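Notebook entry, structure prediction.
Reason for the run: the old model in the group folder had no record of what sequence produced it. Starting over properly, with the input documented here first.
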Amino acid sequence: MPEAERAAATCGLDLYWDEGVTAYDFGPGHPMDPARLALTMRLVESLGLAAGPGVTVRAAPAAGDSTLRLVHTREYVDAVRRVAADPALSDRRHGLGTDDNWAFAAQHSASALIAGQSVAAAESVWRGGGHAVNFAGGLHHAMPDRASGFCVYNDAALAVARLLELGAERVAYVDLDVHHGDGVQQAFWDDPRVLTVSIHEHPATLFPETGWATESGGPGAPGSAVNLPLPAGTGDAGWLRAFHAIVPELLAAFRPQALVSQHGADTHADDPLAHLAVSLDAQRLAAESVHELAHRYADGRWVALGGGGYAVAEVVPRAWTHLVGTAAGRPVDPATETPQEWRAEVHRLTRQQAPLRMTDGADPVWRDFHDDGYDPGDRLDQAILATRRAVFPHHGLLP
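New structure, fully documented this time:
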């Protein structure tokens, strides 16, 4: 067994969880239903992962103002507090009280709590090595001075910023959400210490309408932003082909000292807000690949975050439970039946029928870009090559 795989099989995990994160609740009818978080933790517990060997469940305090200002402006943090104090207010200049980002009383406190878990996760892996998961995090759209796309504070960017503050010289961020990781890209656009990689649905068909291959970093950091926009309808084979055509080579060249990844479950075929056709089984394989790459290129320092995902009962809890199992070195067998007590909780919270197994029944396979070559008539391969041409030469790689 390769050294990286041996290390992955014996790694420890800090799992960050506080029931208070479920107060991140825009209200009835909003797609960002906090039940998806509660149901994920209940599934993690029901399958015995939270009490497994090497797993420590931790709760961190909310991020304070000085931490939030690693990414966000003082004016913006004050605006979030002001709107939270009176949710009848709106502050559209700061993206608060909009069609996407409804105002609610816990807007500051719950957002800061989620951010605190991700920042603590970053501190944990930097100081102690190993892995940390905060599946409540991954709120990657928030900008320094405004909320965006259901995201108030950008915990993913804050985790990266905290790693830099602690002394990291190279941090890689890999975003697998169906939406472009625009807020994290913006935060580090001109910082050569950070490599941001986002694989997402094409901006012509999905919010936030950014993430073109030509977006490749500021003048002080050319090639530091990597964007691979995928055609709508891309399924398992194309999604995994795209990941493996881009991510491993870039991480090998960049040699990050820590890896932060975002695992939005909204790439799934059943997600109501997007147009990819990825299975739970492919999402699991991608998480396993990120895990292995963290050991191979980042000395095992891995912070894994959640993100989007709006199939609240059908997809999100299973996807992130697989993520937790992978990070703990105890991957969940896809054939595993979901526990009866968890199915009852799904019905109680959502009035939906729970999925019966930890799989969609898919067996994803993909053609390797390097072994099988480039098809000039294939839109996916055109997208892969456009991204490689835009950024690979900046890293000394051939496109």
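Summary: The beta strands are 13-16, 55-58, 131-134, 171-175, 194-201, 225-230, 258-262, 302-305.
The old model has been moved to the deprecated folder.
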